[in-house]
Amino acid sequence: MARKLKIGITCYPTLGGSGVVATELGKLLAERGHEIHFITHSIPFRLGKFNKNIFYHEVEVNDYYVFRYPPYDLALASKMAQVAKMQQLDLLHVHYAVPHAVCAYLAKQMNGDGLRTVTTLHGTDITVLAQDESLKDLIRLAIHQSDAVTAVSNDLIQETRQLLDITTPIDLTYNFVDKRVYYPREAAALRADFAAEDEKILMHISNFRPVKRVGDVVDIFERVSRKLPSKLLLVGEGPELSKIQCKIRQLGLEDRVHFLGKQEDVAQVISMADVLLLPSEKESFGLVALEAMACGVPTIGSNAGGIPELITHGETGFLSPIGDVEDMAANVERLLTDKKLHEQFRQACLFRARNEFCNDVITTQYEHIYYRVLGIE
Ligand code: GMT
């Protein structure tokens, strides 16, 4: 049996799919007996209950008076080096190249020993930041100096190669959901709080950033609701929220749209939906679509980025060109007016989530990568 590892994990701990994936991975590795040390500025929001193999090390930023901007990155790099030395970590697994992979590189330099680093790219570190000429060389350095680099979709691998001219190998490690948490939950009573028996529920969950095109969600719903008795549930918060509220008022849809805010128990919330809407402009993976899939809810959305690797068009959802709200609305209508087709999609969703994006399989993939960089095959 391969030896148990001591792994430092750094991610954005407060919100977003990357933080969720990093935290869930840490929990699963801890269940397998590895010792996991989260090194982050706040406690990861999905950490949950106590586990004897999980430790949390808080990065504290020194607000020394000469600093105009307190240097979080330097504090993180120092903390990584300190924890790695004290806890004798085998490796650091960082999620996001900027600044985490750069900090891991610094920590490695500071320690001067056999500390290994693994970087997982999640999307915007490449698709947005790598477009910025002033950051390109830094991101390229961080990637080249990692002992292994993984990305959450083939699309993201291609984009990383093109934008940064990277030729070194990048491992594909799809995101996953824990099938013990994500499964169709009993939701009839909750549904009744939002929709009448004959009404369908459309749902959108995101951080309401412009890239999610929440305006399209409303446009799709507006078209669907003209033809089908339905409700729209919007889950999450973010910069576009007030604009969206305004749009809903202007369209006179207030009675048919509910804002649920940020929600912790996503599996329970998604289980209320008949369909998830994800019309994003950019999406390296689209974790929420996988969460929905695992709860038996098909996705209707755009074919941006890595979404087609997750959603099989015509089997577990329907995908259209970005911004084609007419087509997306027609697809929602098609799916929600055909009971047999909806059930077929639902079963395909459950099968695909459990078999292709299963927590056990992906955790094993990461373990293999760790053993590889440590020379333990
Ligand atoms: O999409 C966001 O706004 C959040 C961002 C994050 O940091 O969590 O999501 C990125 O990583 C997720 C986990 O790998 C992916 O599921 C999302 O598709 C990706 N977002 C983008 O590519 C825009």
TrEMBL record:
The gene is bshA. PANTHER family: SULFOQUINOVOSYL TRANSFERASE SQD2. GO terms for molecular function: glycosyltransferase activity. This is N-acetyl-alpha-D-glucosaminyl L-malate synthase BshA. Residues 195-347 form the Glycosyl transferase family domain. GO terms for biological process: bacillithiol biosynthetic process. It comes from Paenibacillus arenilitoris. Residues 16-178 form the Glycosyltransferase subfamily 4-like N-terminal domain.
